Structure formats: structure tokens, C-alpha cells
């Protein structure tokens, strides 16, 4: 009887140990990778959108600088106010990606248009 109880206890502890070992060896997912998997297709499309070149003027709108596109007269918010500040009131060529949901330009490069 003692031998039977010893075998049962040994098997139970072995199973418990294997379970713990399997949980510790389970690969954990990187938080950035988890967020990427949760993105909707529209999020992925806007992030993978290629930068394009736009021509226009950097102007003040309230306390913020905006980019006024010449061809469409569309005003875009700017994600990097510091990058745009030296060009306030000037005609510029901006290479940027556009976030259509917020009408924001994510500036890649900006230069005075001469």
C-alpha cells in the first residue's frame, strides 16, 4: 500500500513539474508584435502608405503651423511643428505621408521651394 501511494505521489509531482516546465518554456509575445497583430487593415494601410511630395505654404492657424497645399488649397496639420517653424510664411516642398483620418502630414523632409 505504501509503495502504491508513493508511486501515485511521484506521478502527480512529475505531472505538476512538467506542467510548470511547459508554461515557462512557452514563448512570450513581444508587446509590439501583439499590437501589430491587433491592428485593423486600415491601420496597416495608412502606416504602409508611401511618402509623397507636396508643394504649398507653411502658415499659422491659431497657435499651430499648418501646411496649405497649393494645388488643392487643402490645409493639413503638421506632426512636427519644430521642423516646420523655420519655414513659416514660405513656399515649401514637403515629403510626407498623409494620415487621412486626421488630415495630418507626417513630415519626412521639408525644403524651401524656390
Q: Specify the biggest β-sheet.
A: 5 strands, mixed, barrel
Query: Which spans have pLDDT < 50 for at least 5 consecutive residues?
Result: 39-47
How many strand units?
5
Morphology = rod-shaped
Output mean pLDDT: 78
For the record, what CATH class of the largest domain applies? Mainly Beta
Looking at the overall shape, the CATH architecture of the largest domain is Beta Barrel
What is the helix/strand order?
HHHEEEHEE
Describe this structure in words.
Mean pLDDT is 78; it is low at 39-47. A 5-stranded mixed barrel has the order 1-2-3-5-4. The radius of gyration is 29 Å and the shape is rod-shaped. It has helices at residues 2-25, 31-38, 41-47, 81-84; strands at residues 52-61, 64-69, 75-78, 91-99, 104-112. Helix content is 38%, strand content 33%. The protein folds into 2 domains: 2-38; 46-112, OB fold (Dihydrolipoamide Acetyltransferase, E2P), CATH 2.40.50.140.
SSE order and pairing:
Elements: H1 2-25, H2 31-38, H3 41-47, E1 52-61, E2 64-69, E3 75-78, H4 81-84, E4 91-99, E5 104-112
Parallel strand pairs: 3-5
Antiparallel strand pairs: 1-2, 1-4, 2-3, 4-5
List keywords for this structure.
alpha+beta; 4 helices; OB fold (Dihydrolipoamide Acetyltransferase, E2P)
Q: What is shown here, in short?
A:
This protein has 4 helices and 5 strands; from the N terminus they run αααβββαββ. It has 114 residues and is an alpha+beta fold. The chain folds into 2 domains: 2-38; 46-112, OB fold (Dihydrolipoamide Acetyltransferase, E2P).
Amino acid at each position: 500500500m505504501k509503495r502504491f501511494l508513493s508511486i501515485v505521489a511521484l506521478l502527480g509531482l512529475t505531472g505538476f513539474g512538467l506542467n510548470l516546465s511547459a508554461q515557462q518554456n512557452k514563448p512570450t509575445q513581444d508587446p509590439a508584435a501583439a499590437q501589430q497583430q491587433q491592428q485593423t487593415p486600415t491601420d496597416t494601410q495608412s502606416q504602409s502608405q508611401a511618402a509623397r511630395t507636396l508643394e504649398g505654404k507653411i502658415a499659422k492657424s491659431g497657435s499651430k503651423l499648418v501646411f496649405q497645399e497649393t494645388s488643392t488649397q487643402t490645409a493639413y496639420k503638421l506632426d512636427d511643428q519644430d521642423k516646420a517653424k523655420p519655414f513659416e510664411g514660405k513656399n515649401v516642398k514637403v515629403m510626407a505621408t498623409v494620415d487621412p483620418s486626421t488630415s495630418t502630414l507626417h513630415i519626412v523632409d521639408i525644403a524651401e521651394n524656390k
